[in-house]
Amino acid sequence: KVVPPHHKSMSTYYVTLCNALIVYQAWQDVGLPLSTTSNEACKMYDALLTQLVSFSNDQSLGGIEGCISRLQVADPDFVMGQVIVNGLELIGTARSVFLDEELNSAVKRMVDLSKTQVICGRELLHVQALEMFAKGSFPKACEIWEKILVDHPTDMLALKLAHDSYFYLGHPQQIRDSIARVLPHWTPQIPHYGFLKGMYSFGLVETNFYDLAEKVAKEGLALNPNDAWSVHSIAHVHEMRAEPDSGLKFMKQTENDWKDCDLLACHNYWHWALCHIEKGEYEAALTLYDMSPSCMKSASMLDIVDTSSMLYRLQMEGINVDSRWKELIRVTKLHAKDHILIFNDAHVLMSFLGAKDVETTNQLISSLQEVAQTPGENYQHRMAQDLGLPICQAMIEFANGNYSQTVNLLNPIRYQIQNIGGSNAQRDLFNQLLIHAAIRSESRFHQKLARCLLVEREAFRPNSLLTQRLIRKTAAVHNMD
Length: 481
Description:
Family: Belongs to the TTC38 family.
Oligomer: single chain
InterPro entries: TPR-like_helical_dom_sf (IPR011990), TTC38 (IPR033891)
Number of helices: 26
Keywords: Repeat, TPR repeat
CATH architecture of one domain: Alpha Horseshoe
Order of helices and strands: HHHHHHHHHHHHHHHHHHHHHHHHHH
Number of strands: 0
Protein name: Tetratricopeptide repeat protein 38
Organism: Callorhinchus milii (Ghost shark)
């Protein structure tokens, strides 16, 4: 029995080995029928799915844009084609149906087609889930994708979109368990099998099973060395264990395997830079920043978030990055009123504050206040009042030197910040912000709180060089033993 390479797509596997069997029939045979008469549309759907799970813009497949064009020409009314095209756009969280009429029209057309075309129940559920996601109802979208996976556990599109949505919801157990539930139904003979390892590993690392997470990710890399998500998961393991030297060694050794996965490469370089920041090697982090793929070119929201996060961390460490903020804001200003994710809002705000752009800062806050008062089922908008606005206001207070007020805003919600999404490593920025503010506060209580927070941090992440620097800083500023 021939086993397909795990980085290859369904269409590559079947076309190569079974030329007599068209791709349309291949999808039927694995229990995931696609309602189109176009074999080309099926091939392009599969090519897009392969690029989605591999975080690549694979020119050998025609690239994402090329595949989208070919799919739409082959069958412009292919419902699942509309689902994956819109899904790719929406899951990137850089565009919103509330602000982008072109995207809103595309989603409406997808829904309308699902009502006029003869499609199967699984495909209809896909449309419903994506419609919910577009409206900001992420929990309901995940419920529908999970419903698909009960009957179709090998539906990678449902699995991947749910995986990413749980990440945006800050639900690490669901990230882990959504993969655990379907793993027994997969075999190495099923294309994309190897990518499940990285996805499962990420859920494990986010729920603090570091040893198992590393083991599973390495199993994924043994199947497919180019799996950037498995590399990313191991980078998280080293970050959470405070092992910067091991992290640096691993990222350097594997760089050639993942650097061309351009949808995730910048994020992996961000992890690499975090190792340098942990060690206090700020120039090395900045050099990596300048050399790595730039969000100025990609305009990807993940790249924007990573760039903002790294510069903000360096700034808290006392490094002057003013010129870089002024460059970054040219991209981030476009997202001042998005409010797709509170997580994104907080990160673009960092760039406005870094560039000292008061006008755009006020635009973000005022528009966030507006959506916080808007009724409806948009999950992120519902969080704006209790989480989004306090987090953003805390960063504004910190930028203005009002450190006590920063602590007063952040400390009461520190255990709820997980709900804005992102990873433990990404959200650690807010832990650091609270500690820096407490150290600088004039309140004696806050100064004692800083010491308590650092003891807590050392217990969870022993031997962290960054934590030790902050402990020394606290002692020096307040003459504490």
